[in-house]
Amino acid sequence: MAKQDGPTSPTKQGGLSDHRTSMVEKGPFCSAHCTCGWRGPARRARSLARADAEGHVRG
Asked: What mean pLDDT is predicted for residues 32-55?
């Protein structure tokens, strides 16, 4: 079963550009997911998944 952390960063406030990312763990992998439908690649390091999320939000 996948483990999901809470939202990590609400950003780009206003309108349709609101992005809320969260980390989802599945086995030894972690990936970033966003409310806009974007999903980052599966990573073994949570820090890399968080960096993917930050890059998406700043995007």
From this structure: 97
Structure tokens at 6: 């809470």
Q: Give the number of other CB atoms < 10 A from CB of residue 43.
A: 18
CA-to-CA distance for 54 and 32, rounded, in angstroms? 9
What DSSP string describes 27-55? TTEEEEEETTS-BPPPBSSHHHHHHHHHH
pTM above 0.85, yes or no: no
Separation of alpha carbons 46 and 17, rounded Å: 25
Question: Which amino acid, 34?
Answer: C
Q: Are 44 and 30 within 8 A, CB to CB? A: yes
Is the per-residue pLDDT at 10 higher than 50? no
